[in-house]
Input
Amino acid sequence: MIFKRIFVIVIDSVGAGAAKNAANYGDSGTNTLKHASYAKKDFNIPNLAKLGIGNITDINNTPATNNPLASFGKMQEISVGKDTLTGHWEMMGLNVTSPFPSFTDTGFPDELIKKIEDFSGRGVIGNCNASGTEIIHDLGERQMKTGELIVYTSADSVLQIAAHEEIIPLDELYRICEFSRKITLENPAWGVGRIIARPYLGTNKDNFMRTPNRHDYAVSPSGVTTLERLKDKGFSVIGVGKINDIFNGVGITEFVKNKSNVDGMNHTIDYAKKDFTGLCYVNLVDFDAVYGHRRNAPGYAECLEEFDQKLGELLPLLGEDDLLMITADHGNDPIHTGTDHTREDVPILVYNKNLKGLDLGIRDSFADIGATIEENFGLEINKFGKSFFK
Output
């Protein structure tokens, strides 16, 4: 072991250019990082620029540098799909060969909806593809009056259930979501990647707000991950943000949820001030959930700048035996058609204060991250990744 602590920060959906098979997904020409940056004329990410992010792809006001502080490159995805679970699982050593089902165009089957209604004793409204904020704006007042459940999906493989916290208590909403997870696991055709409880508060459609009491019910990883290997050998595996949900708690020793990207970076900064040996694995979802799916390119650019500012607070806290990796799990180009994720290569930046920045090239798999972590901590290396540790 050379590094005592490794921090992996996933800037969720910040892709770095169309993958070689992007056309198969309808995503030719996509580049989330590039297109978001050019949506803001005075775009400025000085800390990422110093690390060498401008060496990875064309970014507004961010030229390549001859002396980057971090090693840099891109990673290709070998798994099928372009979703959160797939991207994170591959990072930690898995190859997902079957996509999770989605119901973006059709809504959920009547049989599935009927089972939820029978179990809960409540009717279901919605059952469509929708933005979470828009659907509670449109149906929230009705839900408050009737006590029905708002069920909806998105471009992801998810089944989301929204309910006002004062109408349907959290423990009841969670129980309904747990049942929904159970029945969707029993039927492969319904086996979405995540069931998500989406509680909200407010008095009318003009002030409804989703609360931090969201809870995800994911499927467990399809194989042994880097996280499990670390935990089994007694290392810390700290999940920040939705990491614990993504892995269904498997391989996690400690976790904390985020209210926002800033909150997530504050948690990461707090962990950087603590003593531990192992991995701190961070997901920052605002890029994806707040800006990418809503095709808000200027907002996406500002979110990148916000992350860069918090990164400037984190970097001085990293010591000689710390390694920082910054990457993404897929793309979500804010100027692309539709509202879905985009099939892109993702950036990889690897920083240690004493190491010279090198060109890591285009990696064959996201699993190279897991392989590198595994080699550092003397673990069995997953079969899909190639470590860049040396």
